[in-house]
Amino acid sequence: MRPLLVIAVLALTGCSLFGPKKPDALPAAIPAAKAPDLSAVGSTLDVIDSRVAAAVTVAREANTAGKPAVVESELSVASSFLPSPTEGDLAYARQRSEKATPAEYEKQRAKAAEKQKAAEQAWQTLEAQVAASKAALAARDKRIEELTAEVDRIRQEASNDIWTMTGAALAVIGALTTAFMGPKVGIPLLLCGGFCGAVPFIIDSEYFEYIAAGTMIVSAGLGLWWLADKVRDSVNEPPSNDEASKKE
């Protein structure tokens, strides 16, 4: 019977000291690379295209008005907005200026218009793809957060179930011990079972530190009570037959 009381004291102390720990926090997520702001890039390109077109238009007007200096100045402004041409394109344009007919120039203008339209469509497709990628990444991140929260919930529920089953088992053992061995052994087991069943609520309580300190005090008191009871039983234990014979 005495060992059962010791087990009860140790179990009671263990409930407070070795209770379920909260799951370790997940490592911080690696920050995702910032997606390029295509709207800002597109706006900048639109400004450049518009200013180049404006400079070329004014240069043509100045050429019609017989102002060669203005033509040169406006074309230089337009060129400053544009990248340097490749040697191949530059040679092709010079050859075209020497030999091309008005029909050939019209053909080149039609090709340029088609390329401009294709570029605009490709840009719109790229913007749509980037928007879809952003939406997919946002949905993925949200799903990861939901799954992480679900894992934490399952861990917490599993820990709570373990403590509940432990408390129920100790309560059954305590009840049986009280019935067959007396309340001196059974009641501590019942108290320990109730405490273990309450651990999930105690851990999450703002008064956990006070409860843990009180538990340790109670455990120490039970230990001292058990020790005093053991000493008292040793003192009051009747002498054995051998000792009685020696005294006679």
Structure annotation, total helices: 8
Which percent band covers the strand fraction?
Answer: under 5%
Briefly note the structural class of the backbone: mainly alpha
| Total E-strand runs | 0
> Ranges with pLDDT <50 over ≥5 residues?
1-23
Q: What about the largest sheet? A: none
Write a structural description:
The protein is an all-alpha fold and 248 residues long. The chain has a domain at 2-25 and 142-233. The protein contains 8 helices and no strands. The protein is rod-shaped and about 135 Å long. Mean pLDDT is 76; it is low at 1-23.
What's the short version?
The chain is mainly α and 248 residues long.
Task: Identify the notable features of this structure and list them briefly.
mainly alpha; 0% strand; disordered N terminus; 8 helices; 248 residues
Per-chain topology:
Blueprint (H helix, E strand, L loop, with lengths): L1 H16 L20 H27 L3 H13 L6 H13 L2 H80 L1 H21 L4 H29 L4 H7 L1
Helix pairs in contact: 1-6, 1-7, 2-3, 5-6
